[in-house]
Amino acid sequence: MFSIFAGGSDPAETSRISHETAHALLSRVRANPDADILDRLIAYTDEHGIETIAELWSSAPARSLPGALWRIYLLRVLIRQDPQSASLIFRRGSEVIPTIDPVIAGAAVPTNVEEITALADEILRGIFAGDFGIALDRAAAYCRINAAGCVSFANEEELIHPERAAELTRRGLRYSTLGAELTSCAKLWRAQSLD
Fold first, then answer.
1. What is the number of domains present in the chain?
2. Listed GO cellular component terms (predicted)?
């Protein structure tokens, strides 16, 4: 009776495909970083949406090559969906964070819509044409800055709009988690262990 029900895809096969596509894409582009190919990869989600990439890499472990690529593309999509909020949160985070993360992230100060969008593109471009570890570090720094910005805004909203403060706190936690995952990926990359 069970054989009449179609099952989902095999998790092992899905994992194999996500790792193979991530390695193939990265090695192909890094071996020949043609400007036109880079531009197409940067703009891929603008034209086709993120669904195809999500199918390939979103279920990969956070500390893996496809997991890292998924997170970088996701950050870029989030920035491009609402660059006004992204620049506002990043600017606040840059003001309140007590670390050198704003320098590591590398955004222009003060950060407006154009600069935050350019930062997202630069980080993604660095994955394919620059030092992969540095690109991951920049993305992680961006996440930590946004986490600090979200928490700062949440503190202001807590008494007046507690539901908004709770949402900002949750968003800050997601950014913090994402930053920690990307930092781990950068360390694994440098140890030649990011698979």
1. 1
2. DNA-directed RNA polymerase complex
